[in-house]
Amino acid sequence: MEHISYILQQVVNGIQLGAVYALIALGYTMVYGVLRLINFAHGDVFMLGAFVAYFLISKFGLPVYLVFILTMISCAMVGFIIEKVAYKPLRDAPKISLLITAVGVSLFLEYFLSLKALFTPNYIPFPRPFEIQTYDLSFFVITNVQLLIFIITFISLFILYLLIYRTRYGIAMRAVSHDKETASLMGVGIDGIISFTFIVGASLAGVGGILYGIAYPQINVFMGIMPGIKSFIAAVLGGIGIIHGAVVGGLIIGLCEVFVSAFLSSTFRDGVIFIILFAVLLFRPMGIFGKRIEKV
Amino acid sequence: MRFFTESKWFFFITIIIYVILKALFFSGMASSYIQQIIQYAVIIALASIGLNIIYGFTGQFSLGHAAFYGIGAYTSAYLTKILGIDNLFSYIPVLMACSVISGIIGFLIGIPILKLKDDFLAIATLGFGTLVRVFFDNSDKLSDVLGGSRGFVGIPKITNLELILFFTLFIVVITRHMINSRFGLFWRCIKDDELAASSIGINTTNMKLKAFTYGCMLAGFGGAFYANLYTFLHPSNFDILKSIDFLIIVIIGGMGNITGTILASFIWVGFIEGLRIILPSEILDIRWVVIPILLIFIMMWRPYGIMIKKTK
């Protein structure tokens, strides 16, 4: 009985982490869909989200819902600017140039914020916006932080679903990710849709950043690297370019990480995630939900 | 013999450089710190040539080059410390072993991941680099000598300018011959168009694997020299930033340009270390703010590298 409740507890913790990964993975998968680019800077937008939230809570003491809205807006702006400044001039450049630029943007954001005049590279304690309460559900315990993460993630996913499958922008976005040239012939403004994708992805990453900051209350300018890479792996696992794939992939990666930490050793957790990546790339490169593409 | 006579200019230039450097070292104009940096620049050049083979010639984008460099460094550090090697003659076999081990690991990891292309290859090599970094961080659990996250201390200092310079010369000569041979032709062919290359009968998988293994072997040599030059290793020396260092050197030097890579290594190491001397330590961090901007501008301006003819 104890074992079962321990496992259930780990499942809850895993979903908590996986929900954050899913929010970041959505940005990767959408940007990959429209631009065929791994946006390495996406993990840093996530970090930025946590820092903006830290700033808003500790300096202005804003209520939680305002923190969410303002962080989403500022992350969306950053995502928009990154796309316009760094990626747009390279639209026709070789793929690798775009990738190196993405790495450059990522390094710039990290090291710019780690300057001593700004945040320094040290860990900063993230202020708690509310008291933590624990609810004992006899099989496992759940905290209000976890409930918040589940609810916010669910709401975000629901809004995203409506946005992508029920609005004109969503239809245009799916058309662009399906076939850029044809979509543009059908009157879709490619640049606008790419900006829109970056804005949506970045604001989701911002939400992920706040939730991560609340759940694991230590933030650092380099905190985006590993969650960023893991979320990308989640997007690949679910099938890159597929929205629900990113969510499922994120949850699987989160559960794997928590289970490896709980039952093996926390030093192996990164290793196991990368072994999953290698396995996926080798045996099912299109991911869980992807369709096999016929080779030319 | 043709092998060496064709490269006589390289010998000539290297000997001149050697005489100048030696004169500088003896006259006391170069402090031991400067001497170390010059040797370091040569080491970086050696490892960067490896990346240029992988990325510049064959077009396989790798973000994990520092991992192979680190494998070479840790192997050399471990072997020289365990075996108590302190002279050059018994060091040569260790050097070979480091390169072979880096090469074998590169070969084994290359078999699966070289099936991938462009950005997926980048993320897979990045993943491998992170795995190696995690391994180094926890290496003290395997053997206490390796030091784990505390760093590997007490490595014997064996390398000197002669060894590094002439060994690099030797490698450069071999590499030049390789790229002028069928191998080099095939590699460039794969870079330009992999599908076309395979359609004219080039075994692209095999050739990519050979390029990758060779590049990793050069990184292994570089790492081994590095370990026995600085006598201290830390896992953070072999993370993604180091891989990006190599990448920047290859880009500055121009893709598929060996001489450019060597020059770029000196420029780059000189730039980084020069800023360390010029800038006060409070604003030294600004280096890594400027470098990414530089990288982005180079990508917009010359996506195939600086020291290379503009191609379309």
Short description:
Chain A has helices at 2-35, 42-60, 64-87, 95-113, 144-166, 168-178, 180-185, 190-215, 225-238, 243-263, 269-283, and strands at residues 124-125, 134-136, 141-143, 218-219. Chain A has 296 residues and is mainly α.
Write the layout of secondary structure elements.
The complex is a heterodimer of chains A (296) and B (312).
Chain A: H1 2-35, H2 42-60, H3 64-87, H4 95-113, E1 124-125, E2 134-136, E3 141-143, H5 144-166, H6 168-178, H7 180-185, H8 190-215, E4 218-219, H9 225-238, H10 243-263, H11 269-283
Antiparallel strand pairs in A: 1-4, 2-3
Helix pairs in contact in A: 1-5, 1-6, 1-8, 1-9, 1-10, 2-3, 2-8, 2-9, 3-8, 5-6, 5-8, 6-8, 9-10, 9-11, 10-11
Chain B: H1 2-5, H2 8-27, H3 32-57, H4 65-83, H5 88-113, H6 118-137, H7 161-180, H8 182-192, H9 194-199, H10 204-230, H11 240-253, H12 258-278, H13 287-301
Proportion of strand residues of chain B:
under 5%
Alpha-beta content class of chain A: mainly alpha
Taking all Cα atoms into account, the compactness measure Rg of chain A is 19 Å
Query: What is the CA-atom radius of gyration of chain B, in angstroms?
Result: 19 Å
Shape of chain A: globular
Can you name the CATH architecture of chain A?
Answer: Orthogonal Bundle
CATH H level, superfamily name of chain A? ABC transporter involved in vitamin B12 uptake, BtuC
Provide a descriptive summary of the structure in words.
The complex is a heterodimer of chains A (296) and B (312). Helices cover 72% and strands 3% of the residues of chain A. With 296 residues, chain A is mainly α. Chain A has one domain: ABC transporter involved in vitamin B12 uptake, BtuC (Orthogonal Bundle). Chain A has a two-stranded antiparallel ribbon with strand order 1-4. In chain A, strands 2-3 form a two-stranded antiparallel ribbon. In chain A, helix 9 runs parallel beside helix 11. The longest helix of chain B is centred in the last third of the chain and has 27 residues. Chain B has a domain of 208 residues. The two termini of chain B are 38 Å apart. At the A-B interface, helix 4, helix 9 and helix 11 of A face helix 6, helix 11 and helix 13 of B.
